[in-house]
Amino acid sequence: MIIFGLDPGLGTTGWGVIRAEGNRLAHVANGRIRTDAAAALGARLVALDAALTTLIDRHRPETSAVEEVFVNSNPQSTLKLGQARGVCLLAAARHGMLVGEYAARLVKKALVGTGGASKDQVHAMVARLLPGVAIDGADAADALAVAITHAHHLASNRAVGGR
């Protein structure tokens, strides 16, 4: 199964694609989508959608997962993050995918064993679970971590007779 993981952001959205076969995981691709900070909000959201559509068409994932929004101390930043996250959800849904949604603490706990893990710890665990991967920065590492978490949850669900 091909899984598309996303770490949404208006300025930078991290993405990662993995293949899950049973308990075996393999890296397919990862990267970052950057939008022009000088562009209008609508134009930035359109650019994000276009880039996501290109990636989905290229990699043909069967399912996707998106990190949930955390609340910043700055409400404007939270709103912009939520708008970018909405575009991520829409792009996946438009392509017929069900989308798993995971809180950052859950992703950290799934990969490192503690919800308070640092970004460096998550990055190191992603590299360990996907040997030989060249990770395109922290946002891409987070997206791969979300995809890995989704793979684990899907496998657990199947093991207990779920979908």
What topology does this entry show?
Elements: E1 2-7, E2 12-21, E3 24-34, H1 41-59, E4 63-67, H2 75-94, E5 99-102, H3 104-112, H4 119-129, H5 138-159
* Global Rg: 15 Å
Number of helices: 5
Total strands: 5
Global mean pLDDT: 92
Strand order of the largest sheet: 3-2-1-4-5
By secondary-structure content and strand pairing, the structural class works out as alpha/beta
**Major β-sheet annotation:** 5 strands, mixed
Relative strand content: 15-25%
- What gap, in angstroms, lies between the N and C termini? 14 Å
Work out the helicity level: 40-55%
Spans of at least 5 consecutive residues with low confidence: none
- Globular, elongated, flat, extended or rod-shaped: what is the shape? globular
Order of helices and strands: EEEHEHEHHH
Written overview of the protein:
- It contains 5 helices and 5 strands, in the order βββαβαβααα.
- It has helices at residues 41-59, 75-94, 104-112, 119-129, 138-159, and strands spanning 2-7, 12-21, 24-34, 63-67, 99-102.
- The two termini are 14 Å apart.
- Helix 1 runs parallel beside helix 2 (75-94) and helix 4 (119-129) packs across helix 5 (138-159).
- With 163 residues, the protein is α/β, with parallel strands linked by helices.
- It has a 5-stranded mixed beta sheet with strand order 3-2-1-4-5.
- The model has no long low-confidence stretch (mean pLDDT 92).
- Strand 1 and strand 2 (12-21) form a beta hairpin.
- The longest helix is centred in the C-terminal third of the chain and has 22 residues, at 138-159.
